[in-house]
Specification:
single chain, about 150 residues, alpha/beta, Rossmann fold, binds S-adenosylmethionine, O-methyltransferase activity
Length: about 150
């Protein structure tokens, strides 16, 4: 679950419970010469986000956050990330179509997708009624929901 401050001379904070996934990207990061800008935190996302929020300077300071982790926690991530991102900042959530299953009846969805489908459906409904954000669903890949924090 990487979250990013702006590019340029600013910092990128990247969180993942498994360092291996960060290591996969390392060759590209090195090639782009941005390794020194990335603060990688190997941790469950919730405690890592809570730690970031302990510092009042982090509140409302992030330009952009990208969330791509366990879907069951998307609503929890949203509440924390909303405190970190600035007003007019952008949060992007990946996999919000969940293999297209969100528009299918539950009976027609394979067992392996059901838990994720249920979490993503709850998340999508909650975002749709969240007056703190404007949302746009980009039907690319597995679905990207782009949110702008408006207040
Ligand atoms: C589909 S991968 C995406 C990796 C990366 N965002 C990318 O785009 O290449 C999902 C990632 O979420 C991480 N993840 C899953 N549950 C997590 C949690 N509770 N806290 C932090 N990271 C988690 C996994 O380790 C995995 O790297």
């Amino acid at each position: 679950m990487p979250s990013r401050r702006c590019i340029g001379d600013k910092l990128i904070v990247a969180i993942d419970v498994n360092r291996e996934f960060y290591e996969i990207g390392k060759p590209v990061i090195r090639k782009a010469q941005v390794e020194h800008k990335i603060n990688f935190i190997e941790s469950e996302a919730i405690p890592a986000l809570d730690k970031l929020l302990e510092d009042p300077n982090n509140e409302g300071s992030f330009d952009y956050v990208f969330v791509d982790a366990d879907k069951i926690n998307y609503l929890n991530y949203h509440e924390k990330v909303m405190k970190l991102v600035k007003v007019n900042g952008i949060i992007v959530y990946d996999n919000t179509l969940w293999y297209g299953s969100v528009v299918k009846s539950e009976d027609s969805v394979p067992e392996t997708l059901k838990e994720g489908r249920s979490s993503v459906l709850k998340f999508n409904k909650s975002l749709a009624s969240d007056s703190r954000v404007k949302i746009f669903m980009a039907p690319l890949g597995d679905g990207l929901t782009i949110c702008m924090r408006v207040c």
